[in-house]
Amino acid sequence: MLLSSIRTTVFCRCRSASKGFQHSTRSPQLRQWLVKRSQSTITAEVEASSAQTAAAVPNASTNRIVGRWLLGCSGLVVGAVVLGGVTRLTESGLSMVDWHLVREMKPPQSQAEWEAEFSKYQQFPEFKIMNHDMTLPEFKFIFYMEWGHRMWGRLVGLAYILPTMYFWKKGYFTRSMKGKVLGLCGFVFFQGLLGWYMVKSGLEEKPESHDIPRVSQYRLSAHLGSALLLYCASLWTGLTLLFPAHKLAETRHLTHLRRFAKGTGGLVFLTALSGAFVAGLDAGLVYNSFPKMGDRWIPDDLLAFSPTFKNIFENPTTVQFDHRILAISSLTAITGLYLFSRRVALPRRAKVAISLLAAMAYGQVALGISTLLLYVPTPLAATHQSGSVALLSLAIWVLAELRKMPK
């Protein structure tokens, strides 16, 4: 429509210019030169207007750029989750007792600065109860672990905010996409504040408690859960921009498969979140046997706390038991999803995604059992935590492949 109107305008202006010049007393050469100049000027104006209009309207090319950017951001979030897990496993998370957005970006440089930082750490429960014989070189190790995690978090924030400003100015976002990216950027800020709120829980003096100092398992699970939500939202949005929805025949089996996939994805997310309670309470060190817990299928101290509901979140035995049940349920659901998908006519890419999800589920369960039986070695435990993110990623991919065509 736009192109046809432009062509009509150009044609009419050229004809009117020619007619006006035919009645002129000027020379034919001059008339020809003026007509050509008028035509070239109009063409240049039309091309500039078309280019400006195309740049202001999101298209397939800009969607690919935004999609790749969001996938890159989701990869950085994965790095933050993995690094945070290693920080927790090495018990480094309470080494930095202050929080400053800019000032703490530079670690201590001189010997005096390191001793001052170490002196501040010595005023808090973790040093007094657990690490009272820690040396300065040992403190430097845990400090750099936490510092690296915080700096990675700042990198994630910049990776979301700066491109958002650039793409917004270039007109790459639709109205709905503007709301999504604003939500993602706001979630990054919330995630940083939640991280410091979590650390504060491990720095507080608790005279009534005889347990080792650690962050609240509730705040730890909230911190991990918000990171996973940020990751899932970024990954989903990026995949939907890069991969158009398949034109699938809407059958009853396909509808059931979509519902099955959504439920399975939710179960995988819940299983990963329950791992935060296992890490927060060191519940992986309670019963290091499988499939039984000790010599029983259901341990005696499963409901040792009162009131009963506190066992779900505060009893290490119950937390490990719940994580086992959720992991086995996820494996069963993914296996059922794979078998049911064989009955539905799906594109090749969707079949590959479901197959990889099933393979990863069995690998993740094997990693979890190995981590448990070997008394939670740090490298294996970190691999198991990374595996949970990989499993969740594949579940998101499956959902993206099975989504409906937009109306």
UniProtKB/TrEMBL annotation:
Annotated GO biological process: heme A biosynthetic process
Keyword Magnesium set for record: no
Please name the pathway: Porphyrin-containing compound metabolism; heme A biosynthesis; heme A from heme O: step 1/1
Q: What is its main location?
A: membrane
What catalytic activity does the UniProt entry give for this protein? Answer: Fe(II)-heme o + 2 A + H2O = Fe(II)-heme a + 2 AH2
What is the recorded membrane topology of this protein? Multi-pass membrane protein
Query: Which InterPro entries has this protein been placed in?
Result: COX15/CtaA_fam (IPR003780), HemeA_Synthase_type2 (IPR023754), Peptidase_S1_PA (IPR009003)
| Family annotation (HAMAP family) | HemeA_synth_type2
PANTHER family the UniProt entry points to: CYTOCHROME C OXIDASE ASSEMBLY PROTEIN COX15, CYTOCHROME C OXIDASE ASSEMBLY PROTEIN COX15 HOMOLOG
| Protein name as annotated | Cytochrome c oxidase assembly homolog 15 (yeast)
Q: Which organism is it from?
A: Lates calcarifer (Barramundi)
Q: What would be the name of the gene that encodes this protein?
A: COX15
